[in-house]
Amino acid sequence: MALLITDECINCDVCEPACPNEAISEGDDIYVIDPDLCTECVGHFDEPQCVVICPVDCIPKDPNHVETENDLLAKYKRITGQ
């Protein structure tokens, strides 16, 4: 399942550089996560780095992009070519 940044985002800019897949970018009002690039850090880390570093806890799982651990690993392999 990809992650989602909610309206509680304060645009602190700590999540974007923490994403190993470059799935996070600056949106019109808040940062956004590209669900096609988000692997919840599967393949890179044990837990999503944006969630770990977010000071306001505004990055839940995106219910519109449900994926299993195997799906996320396959996406990681596709993105990284590994």
Automatic annotation (TrEMBL):
Per the record's keyword annotation, is Secreted included, yes or no? Answer: no
Question: Could you tell me which InterPro entries the record lists for this protein?
Answer: 4Fe4S_Fe-S-bd, 4Fe4S_Fe_S_CS, PSI_iron-sulfur_center, YfhL-like
A Pfam family hit: Fer4
Q: The 4Fe-4S ferredoxin-type domain covers which part of the protein? A: 1-29, 31-64
Keywords carried by this UniProt record: 4Fe-4S, Iron, Iron-sulfur, Metal-binding
Xref: PANTHER family: PHOTOSYSTEM I IRON-SULFUR CENTER (PTHR24960:SF79), PHOTOSYSTEM I IRON-SULFUR CENTER-RELATED (PTHR24960)
Q: Which NCBIfam families does the UniProt entry name for this protein? A: di_4Fe-4S_YfhL
Protein name per its UniProtKB record: YfhL family 4Fe-4S dicluster ferredoxin
